[in-house]
Specification:
7-stranded antiparallel beta sheet, binds iron/sulfur cluster, Glutamine Phosphoribosylpyrophosphate, subunit 1, domain 1, amidophosphoribosyltransferase activity, 6-stranded antiparallel beta sheet, alpha+beta, globular, 2 domains, 26% strand, 479 residues, Rossmann fold
């Protein structure tokens, strides 16, 4: 599974925006490693630099020196909608009759094709197959007839799906979160300006203070001189659809999302896992790094219940090995886990072990880890997972396996246990997740673990009364 993208935007008083944007993108690198880009505006013209690769490779000091202006937006991307090539790297920029637009998108629209077709019929020419360009063209069209706030509202009335956006219209930076708030977006204050970012860790990196989350359906407009911001609640939905996997897997543990520190949420999920399916073993160990916060909460709750179990690292990670899928053959992919993780035998040999991770997608890694622990002499291996079984794909911007590849799509927990070779296996329940997050089931997206989505996804079930906008009739929103 891969997070899709990270977005950021800043407006400063009398400092160039390029370097703060660059540092923010470093803080958001975990949200996308395929490409990185920055667009700035100096009051006269827009400047952009978008490049494939990690942030550190995509920019050199000369590139940053050409990005003039105290206002700008930035983006890191992992491909979701659209191809793996430079034309889909972001921010996406376009010049039109009433100015310039830059757009950075985190999420995925589920009606992009319908909007694209209609715009194409009106004469819009597209250079990519990504949904971000669809938003940019729709907004550019609306800006020909409406002021900025109304134009954004009109576009929001036509697009359906998951989106947290930072937008640059000439030198004005905007932040928009979709009406159900699927992806995170927050606003922070700097010594000399304001910042909008996917995660608060980016604000911390700039020595700023988190002000609050951008509300679902809200537009935030930063003053171009960094002196303040205005907000507009453009759409009010009765229910939200926050992606629960942001808390479980994607976001940095040191980020605050929807007013919760992600690290503490993961520890609470680990504590709940112990309450639901705790088993007393000699040692509790995380899969590094993904299972660490869960395992620490699990072990703490176990100790409080008087369990005689040690919390220890049993697997050491080699931080210099790249992503598994760049290995060309299946055999090499299978070996990759041995390159990435090495067991600490003294923690494992002759002992019973609880291995904790955040999720199981295909089951391949779990199988390999269990083999690794058995080879290192573990007597029993009990696997505990800090999320429910993933039974369905994500259409909202997470790069996840298809149903065919998801091990839990057509297998019972007992069949999965057997396949991965564990002595026991338990997942966290859906109620355990909602309780630990302190949210109603109806305010979360749980599509990949229930098969029912909070958006109108073609061919899938929905868990609420929601439907796509009718594109032909919706040329602009009411005031
Ligand atoms: S389907 Fe799953 S991963 Fe996708 S947004 Fe919903 S909860 Fe998140």
């Amino acid at each position: 599974m891969h997070e899709k993208c990270g977005v950021v935007g800043v407006s400063l008083t009398d400092r160039e925006a390029a370097r703060p944007l660059y540092y923010s993108l470093y803080a958001l690198q975990h949200r996308g490693q395929e490409s990185a880009g920055i667009v700035t505006h100096d009051g006269f013209q827009q400047h952009e630099h978008v490049e494939m690769g990690l942030v550190g490779d995509a920019f050199d000091p000369d590139d940053l020196d050409t990005l003039n202006g105290a206002n700008g937006i930035g983006h890191v991307r992992y491909p979701t909608a659209g191809g793996v090539n430079t034309c889909c790297a972001q921010p996406f920029s376009v010049s039109f009759k009433s100015g310039s637009l830059g757009l950075a998108h985190n999420g995925n629209l589920v009606n992009a094709e319908e909007v694209r077709e209609e715009l194409a019929e009106l004469g819009h020419a597209f250079t990519s197959n990504g949904d971000t360009e669809v938003i940019a063209h729709d907004l550019a069209r609306n800006l020909l007839e409406e002021d900025l706030v109304r134009a954004v509202k009109s576009t929001m009335s036509r697009i359906h799906g998951s989106y947290s956006l930072t937008i640059m219209h000439d030198e004005t930076v905007l932040g928009v979160r979709d009406p159900q708030g699927n992806r995170p977006l927050c606003i922070g204050e700097l010594e000399d300006g304001y910042v909008i970012a996917s995660e608060s860790a980016a604000i911390d990196t700039l020595d700023g203070e988190l002000i609050r989350d951008v509300k679902p359906g809200e537009l935030v407009v930063l003053h171009p001189n960094g002196s303040g911001y205005d907000t507009y609640q453009l759409v009010d939905e009765s229910r939200t659809a926050h992606c629960f996997f942001e808390h479980v897997y994607f976001a940095r543990p040191d980020s605050v999302i929807d007013e919760e520190l992600v690290y503490e949420v993961r520890r609470d999920l680990g504590r709940t896992l112990w309450e639901e399916s705790g088993v007393e073993t000699d040692v509790v160990m995380p899969v590094p790094d993904s299972g660490r916060s869960f395992a620490s909460g699990y072990a703490e709750a176990a100790a409080e219940d008087g369990a005689d179990t040690e919390f220890a690292e049993g697997l050491m990670k080699n931080r210099y090995v790249g992503r598994t899928f760049i290995m060309p053959t299946q055999d090499e992919r299978e070996r990759a886990v041995r390159l990435k993780l090495n067991p600490i035998k003294s923690t494992i040999e002759g002992r019973t072990v609880t291995l904790i991770d955040d999720s199981i997608v295909r089951g391949t890694t779990s199988t390999q880890l269990i083999e690794l622990l058995r080879d290192a002499g573990a007597e029993e291996i009990h696997v505990r997972i800090g999320s429910p079984e993933i039974i369905a794909p994500c259409y909202l911007g997470i790069d996840m396996a298809s149903r065919d590849e998801l091990i839990a799509a057509d297998k019972t927990t007992e069949e999965i246990r057997d396949e991965i070779g564990a002595d026991s296996l338990s997942y966290l329940s859906i109620e355990g997740v909602t309780n630990a997050l302190g949210k109603d089931h109806d305010d979360l997206c749980l599509g990949c673990v229930t098969g029912e989505y909070p958006y109108d996804v073609e061919g899938e079930q929905t868990d609420r009364d929601v439907s796509r906008p009718i594109i032909d009739n919706a040329s602009s929103a009411d005031d």
